[in-house]
């Protein structure tokens, strides 16, 4: 029984050779003891185990093959552990690269496409969200209360973005930038998803205000869609999935116009053209943006 215990314990090292060696040593030791001991003391030995050398040979072989079996079990356990650790590392790599607030569904889809490159030109819809009058709010409250306020609001808003197949790309203090269509696209529904998410974000803030769960809060949202360069930017120590292009700058500019017009949700012509048949909107203005020769038409969508 003692020999079997050592053989079983050898599995914990997850090394085949160690388990096989343990089985070999156990079998050899038992056989040597039997050969040396039986001729000298044939009577005191228990009859059913030690009346001849033959049973010891079979037991020695049993120990040896038990060591082989234990080694094979150790190999399988080792492979399973390595596979599990690799899966965790891949998942942590994805989450670290694309942000902590990537939805589990997106993480799974990224892991399925882990051999594909994420550096490419893609058509995306970019969302900028900003909490209005946050500076005034934060100046009158202790840091802990301000952080708790942001975490509470963002916990609700992040879920909405995730549900609509978006990804929070960056937090901007009192707001964030989200992208729809990268790194995983939802076919031709990325603009639709972004608009629906925006309308739901506004409804959620209104609900939290009405329920008294947060101090009176207003947000502004800006959307623009277009081609963008996407890819992992940084060093080996730290990389971040980044969206680069005019689409980002224009979405940010459109969001800032909410303050000027007293609105909550503004989109560009490119976004409006995709959803005008399903979401009501009105033309507000044509703005001149640095770097563009033609003015950009801005629309207000679905009032709350």
UniProtKB/TrEMBL annotation:
<dbReference type="GO" id="GO:0035556">
    <property type="term" value="P:intracellular signal transduction"/>
</dbReference>
<dbReference type="InterPro" id="IPR029787">
    <property type="entry name" value="Nucleotide_cyclase"/>
</dbReference>
<dbReference type="GO" id="GO:0004016">
    <property type="term" value="F:adenylate cyclase activity"/>
</dbReference>
<feature type="transmembrane region" description="Helical">
    <location>
        <begin position="16"/>
        <end position="36"/>
    </location>
</feature>
<protein>
    <submittedName>
        <fullName>Adenylate/guanylate cyclase catalytic domain protein</fullName>
    </submittedName>
</protein>
<keyword id="KW-0472">Membrane</keyword>
<dbReference type="InterPro" id="IPR050697">
    <property type="entry name" value="Adenylyl/Guanylyl_Cyclase_3/4"/>
</dbReference>
<keyword id="KW-0812">Transmembrane</keyword>
<dbReference type="GO" id="GO:0006171">
    <property type="term" value="P:cAMP biosynthetic process"/>
</dbReference>
<dbReference type="GO" id="GO:0005886">
    <property type="term" value="C:plasma membrane"/>
</dbReference>
<feature type="transmembrane region" description="Helical">
    <location>
        <begin position="56"/>
        <end position="75"/>
    </location>
</feature>
<dbReference type="Pfam" id="PF00211">
    <property type="entry name" value="Guanylate_cyc"/>
</dbReference>
<keyword id="KW-1133">Transmembrane helix</keyword>
<keyword id="KW-1003">Cell membrane</keyword>
<dbReference type="InterPro" id="IPR001054">
    <property type="entry name" value="A/G_cyclase"/>
</dbReference>
<feature type="domain" description="Guanylate cyclase">
    <location>
        <begin position="125"/>
        <end position="255"/>
    </location>
</feature>
């Amino acid at each position: 029984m003692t020999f079997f215990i050592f053989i079983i314990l050898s599995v914990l090292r997850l090394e085949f050779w160690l388990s096989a060696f343990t089985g070999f040593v156990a079998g050899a030791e038992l056989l040597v003891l039997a050969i040396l001991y039986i001729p000298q003391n044939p009577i005191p030995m228990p009859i059913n185990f030690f009346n001849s050398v033959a049973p010891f040979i079979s037991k020695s072989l049993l120990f040896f093959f038990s060591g082989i079996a234990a080694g094979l079990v150790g190999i399988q356990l080792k492979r399973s552990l390595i596979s599990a650790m690799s899966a965790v590392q891949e998942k942590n790599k994805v989450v670290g690269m694309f942000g902590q607030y990537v939805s589990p569904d997106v993480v799974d889809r990224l892991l399925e496409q882990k051999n594909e490159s994420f550096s490419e030109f893609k058509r995306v819809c970019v969302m900028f969200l900003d909490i209005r009058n946050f500076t005034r709010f934060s100046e009158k409250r202790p840091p802990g209360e301000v952080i708790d306020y942001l975490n509470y609001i963002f916990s609700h808003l992040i879920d909405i973005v995730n549900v609509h197949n978006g990804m929070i790309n960056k937090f901007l203090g009192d707001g964030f930038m989200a992208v729809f269509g990268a790194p995983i696209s939802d076919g031709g529904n990325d603009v639709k998803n972004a608009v629906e998410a925006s309308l739901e974000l506004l409804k959620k803030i209104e609900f939290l205000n009405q329920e008294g769960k947060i101090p009176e809060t207003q947000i502004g949202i800006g959307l623009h869609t277009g081609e963008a360069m996407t890819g992992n930017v940084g060093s080996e120590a730290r990389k971040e999935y980044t969206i680069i292009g005019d689409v980002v700058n224009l979405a940010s500019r459109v969001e800032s116009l909410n303050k000027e017009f007293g609105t909550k949700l503004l989109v560009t012509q490119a976004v409006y053209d995709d959803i005008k048949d399903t979401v009501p909107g009105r033309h507000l203005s044509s703005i001149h943006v640095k770097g563009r020769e033609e003015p950009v038409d801005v629309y207000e969508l679905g009032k709350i």
